[in-house]
Design goal:
The protein has 343 residues and is mainly β. The protein has no helices and 28 strands. It has a six-stranded antiparallel beta sheet, with no helix packed on it.
């Protein structure tokens, strides 16, 4: 789908990353810990996160953690273990425990690949939304949050009669429109999977009335998705080898008016240490993007300026979530779940 472009400046210099005389990023780094470290590329980042912020492990030994969401009313964190077909719950006190199983694949026939739920979110009424990788659909949990059961209301099952690839991440706005991405990662053989029915990887909107609309079909590996604080901009990340973050202006009905590349990760690959593979992300209270990727959590301003990085050692980060006051960040990283206190 052709979309008129917003003009964003994308060059390395225009991003304003602080440099020393050698041309390398002027990075301030904390003393390394066993888990990771905070790197600051811009003075603005010092007002967001302390340079000596501790990176704590609150859970470990899961099979590909994803989709964390904080549930304020229950003061609990939920996250998917995609390859276990489970959702876990952490109450802030004890070790995470199984919250829901099965979470993403409810058939009894053997299915290879990533079967569990992936992205999780809350709608405006506080109900749990799930991207089901195995079932290849977007659903709402049809059970109370404090008495979970694998009962689901299907919100989006297919596009024009063709099954989705594997819904990956989602976000709901204050009007209860739901936006989600549909890359090929949950298919056992990815783009070459014989059960694949759609020849593109889409970004969709489910309206509050239940109508499904394809918004974008031109992004390869659309993955993370979020809305700006005023819900006028839709952000989408591509986890393709050539990482890009996109920003799209929305009209009052949630339709895309224009859009384009916000930040090109390839241009910053060496200088800013961004590797390929932008994954899930969330928006902080200042409008900054906290985006996961192989290096950790990249902190990106609303104008596309790389501010800093919460580097995680030897683990590929997949997603993150804030608590309700957005002064605590939770990170899913391979088989770990982490917590970082922000300013």
């Amino acid at each position: 789908m052709k979309i008129p472009l917003i003009v964003f400046t994308l060059s390395y210099l225009s991003l304003g990353i602080g440099c020393n005389t050698t041309g390398e990023p002027a990075t301030v780094v904390v003393t390394d810990s066993a888990v990771g470290k905070v790197e600051l590329y811009d003075s603005a980042a010092s007002g967001i996160i302390n340079i000596n912020a501790a990176i704590e492990i609150i859970g470990r030994n899961y099979k590909w953690c994803e989709g964390p969401v904080w549930v304020p009313i229950k003061q609990m964190l939920l996250f998917s273990a995609v390859r276990e077909n489970k959702i876990y719950r952490w109450d802030g006190k004890d070790t995470p425990v199984v919250y829901l199983t099965p979470s993403g694949y409810t058939d009894t026939a053997f299915r290879d690949g990533e079967n569990g739920s992936n992205g999780l979110a809350l709608d405006k009424d506080g109900k749990l939304l799930l991207c089901q990788s195995g079932n290849r659909q977007v659903v709402r949990l049809n059970a109370p949050l404090d008495s979970p059961a694998p009962k689901f209301t299907v919100l989006a099952k297919n596009y024009k009669g063709k099954k989705f690839n594997s819904p990956n991440d989602l976000v709901a706005d204050r009007k209860n429109n739901i936006y989600f991405t549909d890359p090929i990662y949950g298919l056992p053989k990815h783009e070459n999977d014989p059960t694949r029915e759609l020849k593109f990887e889409g970004v969709y909107r489910i309206s509050s009335s239940g109508k499904l609309n394809l918004l974008i079909d031109s992004i390869t590996r659309p993955n993370g998705i979020a809305l700006s604080l005023d819900e006028k901009i839709l952000y989408v990340g591509s986890s393709d080898e050539h990482t890009k973050w996109y920003a799209y202006q929305l009209d009052s009905n949630g339709n895309i008016q224009s859009g384009g590349i916000l930040l090109d990760g390839y241009a910053l690959k060496e200088k800013a240490k961004i590797k390929s593979g932008a994954d899930g992300f969330k928006i902080d209270k200042y409008g900054n993007i906290f985006s996961s990727g192989p290096d950790g959590i990249n902190i990106i301003s609303p104008t596309g300026k790389l501010l800093g990085l919460i580097r995680i050692y030897n683990k590929q980060t997949s997603n993150c979530a804030f608590n309700e006051t957005k002064d605590v960040l939770f990170i899913t990283a391979n088989d770990w779940v982490l917590r970082v206190n922000l300013k």
